[in-house]
Amino acid sequence: MPTPSPLPWDTLARYRLIEILALWEGRVASSQLGKAFGIGRQQSQKILRQYRDLFPHNLVYDESRKGFLPSPNFQAEFTRGQVEEYLHLLGSHLGLDSPFAGLGLGTADTESLPLPSRKVSPRVVRELVKASRQGLRLEVTYASFTSPEGEDRIIVPHTLVFAAGRWHVRAFCEKHRDYRDFVLSRFRGVPEPMGEMLGEHDAKRDQEWRTRVEVRLIPDRRLPAAEQRLIMIDYGMTDGELVLNCRGPLVLYALRELGVNPNHSEPDPRAQQIQIANAPELKRWIRWD
Hints:
This protein is α+β, with helices and mostly antiparallel strands. Helix content is about 30%, strand content about 25%. The protein has 9 helices and 10 strands. It has helices at about 10-25, 30-35, 40-55, 85-90, 120-135, 205-210, 225-235, 250-255, 270, and strands spanning about 60, 65-70, 135-140, 150-165, 165-175, 180-185, 185-195, 210-220, 240-245, 275. Strands 6-5-4-3-7 form a 5-stranded antiparallel β-sheet. Strands 9-8-10 form a 3-stranded antiparallel β-sheet. It has a two-stranded antiparallel ribbon with strand order 1-2. β1 and β2 form a beta hairpin. α2 crosses α3 (about 40-55). The two termini are about 40 Å apart.
């Protein structure tokens, strides 16, 4: 990070939260810091002052919104400015990266595979989060394989979801009159609020979303018994099965994460490794596009 000397890990976590909220929600206030870290108002205000002393051009106070807004020249200093940071924070509520980030544990012989991050606009995320919290309709321009240049739609978002390596929003689509998944990187321009939802189209009315489904996975039956036992141990199976409980619309994403295609088996069982034990029960959810 661009500081001249290492910061205490708790200070670093607080500065990261300031940047994440400012960039992706468009506002950060001392009350948010207090709630996140269990500290008082005066200490929260002090942290904000210290951050602004370091980077005076990043935040601007807005009296009407009772908080600090990102300036037009905002530049992330303690975060990467990637949407995953904010969305993972939403998912964990307090998960500011690893809890051990910044502790200076030294170099270890580890390596992770860097995967591309899909480009997502902070302004898009701000409007989606605001609409999902307040039950608002949004007019959006959304690109897809059927409309690569983008198509205008009106949606009512209710949940942000990370699955199969990308973030999307679950929302009611007024054009199709049903609930669909919209990939965050495919929104074009900035969504425009259209007022409160017409009728009830929140998560409580999304029956598919509320349906819990069991996905039962077993070792590929073509493997020798010893190799099947090896797979059972790898996946932590109980009585020869791994049972995943997830929402109906997420079943296909779960299978994709595990590299299981319900419509195709690898010729080599060692490449396949696992298979679906209850495929007929999942037929409704495993339309593989």
